[in-house]
Design goal:
Helices cover about 30% and strands about 20% of the residues. It has helices at about 35-40, 65, 70-75, 85-115, 130-135, 225-240, 250-265, 280-290, 295-305, 320-325, 345-355, 370-375, 410-415; strands spanning about 1-5, 15-20, 25-30, 55-60, 80-85, 140, 145-150, 155-160, 165-175, 180-185, 205-210, 245, 275, 315, 335, 360-365, 380-385, 390, 395-400. It is globular.
């Protein structure tokens, strides 16, 4: 047995692990490197393996820092099954197509710019057809069901409590009379998140490969994020300004909508709320199809004929024209992807709202170094968006504690359950 770390080592994104067991070679995750130009360039580096020689891939969850290089893997010869929970398979199917759209759009922008400068640049990392082929390889396997993807290997998914469908993966690897148990944590969720269940404990492992995104901090030190969000909305309602919330389309947007549903009722807010992200709208529909993965509180709301993802002031935009129309309005809340403000419609909303002092920008997730979101979080007074320098006069807030990642104490508590078998 051999394991090679091909990403997410000394960095947060780009999760990818190559496993060799006898004659079999397989991957756990194959994610995009995210951040600034340097990190994005890493996605074009040659794989440290031949994709055509990979037998199968185990996907821990759908976020693109774990799944976003799969279409390129397929483009370069991978043809094996992609094994994931059913909810992850459904989410990955829409996220990979969305990622391909972004790759094509960004490549077109680079090429236009390069032609004017007389330079040559590379084309898209992959295209829609590559994502569509990847989607045909997705196979859903329920939590708790043992599966055997090759000789000498047993596997099982358990709920990691990070986003819908997220899993940590138990692998029992056997060579001759020798068996070892290896566990990949994927991303471990923060207990107490709305909608989804808390991470399941696990009692034994010989080796643990574990994430540590927030291994250096405690969420308890960061205050009540829902109260902070409510206070910002009340201030914006008094001043008549807009609130722009860059949000991850999968997981975070559904969580924000869930919190707003309660805040609008308890704080008597009346600002119209728009979820302006086609991917978030599709992801929310996937959530509705997988209520079996919801926690008891969410199921109680549904049992009482309540709606988790709708309330009277909320609307999901349908078209680009509806999205553009928001730029002419005041006194509204816009939730839009991407969460680090590096792509998607939120860049247009920031361009139209950052320069106005009555507006608010609310960062509700991790902001990687080099991203527009991180520059705003760090307090830069001017940022470049879509080729234009924009003054930052809006009030920029960072709401900590909403992370879908476990913090230092929670990671240590989760790991403390592991004992040699």
């Amino acid at each position: 047995m051999e394991i090679q770390f091909c990403g997410a080592a000394r960095e947060v994104t780009g999760s990818c692990f190559l496993m060799s067991l006898g004659q079999a070679r397989f991957l756990v995750d194959c994610g995009l490197h995210q951040g600034g130009a340097e990190e994005n360039a890493d996605n074009f580096d040659a794989f440290p393996f031949d994709p055509a020689e990979i037998d199968f891939l185990i996907l821990t969850h759908a976020h693109v820092d774990h799944s976003g290089l799969i279409p390129r893997l397929v483009k370069e010869g991978f043809q094996g099954p992609i094994l994931a929970t059913p909810a992850t398979a459904d989410l990955a199917a829409i996220m990979l197509l969305d990622s391909a759209h972004i790759q094509e759009a960004e490549a077109e922008w680079r090429m236009r710019k390069a032609r004017r400068a007389g330079r040559r640049v590379h084309g898209p990392l992959y295209v829609k057809a590559d994502a569509e082929r990847a989607n045909t390889l997705l196979k859903g396997i329920p939590y708790g069901e043992e599966f055997r993807p090759c000789a000498g290997l047993r596997c099982r998914f358990s709920d990691a409590g990070h986003i819908l469908g997220s899993a940590f993966t138990e692998l029992w690897l056997r060579e001759g009379d020798w068996e070892v148990k290896l566990v990949f944590s994927g991303d471990v969720g923060q207990p107490g998140q709305p909608i989804i269940r808390d991470p399941e404990p696990i009692t034994e492992a010989d080796f643990l490969v574990m994430e540590s995104t927030y291994g250096n901090r405690s969420h308890d030190e960061e205050g009540d994020p829902v109260k902070m969000l409510g206070d910002i909305l009340e201030e914006a309602q008094r001043s008549g300004g807009n609130v722009v919330i860059p949000s991850f389309a999968v997981g975070r947007t559904q969580e924000i909508v869930y919190f707003l549903r309660d805040l609008y009722e308890t704080r008597h807010l009346d600002m119209p709320v728009f979820v302006d992200s086609p991917l978030a709208r599709e992801a929310t529909n996937v959530y509705r199809r997988h209520e079996d993965a919801f926690d008891s509180e969410a199921l109680e709301i549904l049992a009482g004929n309540g709606s988790i993802f709708n309330f009277p002031h909320l609307r999901y935009t349908e078209s680009a024209d509806e999205s553009r129309a928001l730029n002419g309005r005041q006194g509204i809340v816009i939730i839009s992807a991407s969460g680090m403000a590096e792509a998607g419609r939120v860049k247009h909303h920031l361009k139209h709202n950052l320069w106005r002092p009555e507006n608010h920008v609310v960062l509700v997730g991790f902001q990687a170094l080099g991203t527009l979101g991180r520059r705003l979080q760090d307090g830069e007074k001017e940022v470049r968006i879509l080729g234009e320098d924009i003054a930052v006069k809006a009030q920029v807030h960072f709401v900590p504690g909403l992370s879908a990642h476990a913090d230092r104490e929670q990671l240590l508590d989760w790991a403390s359950h592991f004992r040699p078998p």
